[in-house]
Design a protein that fits this description.
By secondary structure, the chain is α/β, with parallel strands linked by helices. The protein is built from twelve helices and 19 strands. The protein folds into three domains: about 5-130, Rossmann fold (3-Layer(aba) Sandwich), CATH 3.40.50.12160; about 150-380, tm_1862 like domain (pyruvate-formate lyase- activating enzyme); about 385-445, Beta Barrel (OB fold (Dihydrolipoamide Acetyltransferase, E2P)).
């Protein structure tokens, strides 16, 4: 096995990325090598997403593209893991014969055994192993970080029990289950010792953390404990379900210097009828009050949300209500999804579905409005002093580095281009914002000595 190399393709959300990192580390421990180049790989593993139609289409496209390396390149085996096989295992086995092995979301701990057996199997039979989605990682699992050398995601829980009417997550990831707080802190310490400066907290719902554990330790306690760990400079909260975003959590974010003044709050909609049909907890007034509270308590907080347009029953009037809300809320960052009719969900059987072209139009209207808001917010930042986490070098003579301020989450938000004479990746340096466009900022390092 020493000579066998594996290439990973990780699709979908950060939670899926962590699963890929765990599998990669398990394979390295078992003697396999990992390569970033598909053409060099003996085995290609695609960890897939199946949340909505575009994610499924991306997964299928990637599988077929990687299958070309199996036909014309060095690759001998093609393996598909994650949400897509968990949801469609037997169908995929019939429809995509190029795939040699299908593994569900609960099979991560046994990935090395599956790959080893695949290598030793001389038959041409395709295999699938789709069990209960019950796996919950802990600190005993190493990770081969696929993110930059200074930033990492940390998964505090797995699965979901909210059962939104449009969502397949509970069926492919299982019910909500939190990791023990001491175990999360142990992984945080491990990441800090590995040189990680920024931790982005993730789960299907981070604000529900601890509700299923003995003694019910809550997110506020976890955040305070994580902030006490030496070496970690920034902690960022993602996937905060608005109904569970309490005043205590908001106060904790405001009171801890290491916790970024940033909250990702997926609200999905603001019309009460739509929220009820989505089976979302928390009415529109509660959402507005929560946003007001966050703005009041956390100075300069950057709020991000995600929205769904074209949900069944979203009349023009209900859409206009959502548009008016966006104008009122003025989110720093915002993403919009067109409703995807997913088999096996309650909403798939609803009436009054919105035509596809109208969904697209509504998405474009929201994004155009958000572009205007984002541009105005970024323009107002010119002249501000901000700490910038340097993530990479940039092939531009005026801005040789790329980084992010506290108000920019990795991958989903804008970036900051930095003018500096000598900044090292992983450093957090003081900068002044000099210009801005719709999503990105441009900054110059100040005369202060760079922080390490």
């Amino acid at each position: 096995m020493q000579n066998k190399t594996i290439h990973f393709v990780s699709l979908g959300c950060p939670k899926n990325l962590i699963d890929s990192e765990v599998m990669a580390a398990l394979l390295i421990k078992s003697g396999f090598g990992i390569t970033p180049n598909a053409q060099e790989a003996d085995i290609i593993i695609i960890n897939t997403c199946a949340f909505i139609l575009p994610a499924k289409e991306e997964s299928i496209e990637e599988i077929l593209q990687m299958a070309e390396w199996k036909k014309d390149g060095k690759c001998r085996h093609l393996v598909v893991t994650g949400c897509l096989p968990q949801r469609y295992g037997t169908i995929l086995q019939k429809e995509i014969p190029e795939v040699d092995l299908l593994l569900g979301t609960g099979e991560i701990p046994r990935i090395a055994d599956f790959i080893r057996n695949l290598e030793n199997d001389t038959s041409s039979d395709r295999q699938s192993f789709i069990g209960e989605p019950s796996f919950l990682m802990d600190s005993t699992y190493s990770r081969l970080l696929f993110t930059s050398g200074c930033s990492a995601y940390l998964k505090i829980a797995e699965g979901c029990s909210n059962c939104c009417s449009y969502c397949v997550i509970p069926s492919v990831r299982g019910k909500y289950r939190s990791r023990e707080i001491d175990d999360i802190l142990k992984e945080t310490e491990m990441l800090a010792k590995a040189g990680i400066k920024e931790i982005n907290i993730t789960a299907q719902d981070t604000t529900l953390y601890g509700s299923d554990l003995k003694g019910k330790p809550d997110l506020s306690l976890l955040l305070r404990e994580m902030a006490s760990i030496d070496g970690i400079r920034w902690i960022r909260l993602l996937y905060a379900y608005p109904a569970y975003l309490t005043g205590d959590i908001i106060q904790t974010i405001a009171g801890e210097e290491k916790i970024c003044n940033y909250i990702d709050i997926p609200i999905q909609h603001i019309d009460d009828d739509i929220l009820k049909a989505m089976n979302r907890k928390g009415e529109s007034k509660y959402i507005r009050d929560t946003l007001n509270l966050a703005r009041k308590i956390i100075p300069g907080v950057a709020l991000r949300t995600s929205l769904i347009v074209g949900f069944p029953g979203e009349t023009p009037e209900k859409f206009e209500r959502l548009l008016d809300f966006i104008k009122w809320a003025r989110f720093e960052n915002l993403g919009v999804f067109e409703y995807s009719r997913e088999e096996g969900t309650a909403a798939a059987d609803f009436s009054a579905h919105v035509p596809e072209k109208e969904k697209e139009r509504r998405k474009n209207v929201l994004m155009e409005e958000q572009s205007r808001i984002s541009y105005e917010i970024n323009q107002s930042r010119i002249g501000d002093l901000e700490d910038v986490l340097i993530e990479d070098e940039n092939n531009h003579p005026d801005f040789p580095y790329i980084g992010r301020i506290r108000g920019q989450a990795p991958e989903i938000d804008g970036i900051t281009y930095v003018s500096a004479d000598d900044a090292a990746v992983g450093n957090i340096i003081p900068c002044r914002i000099t210009s801005a466009d719709v999503y990105d900022l441009f900054a110059k390092q100040t005369d202060n000595e760079a922080e390490v």
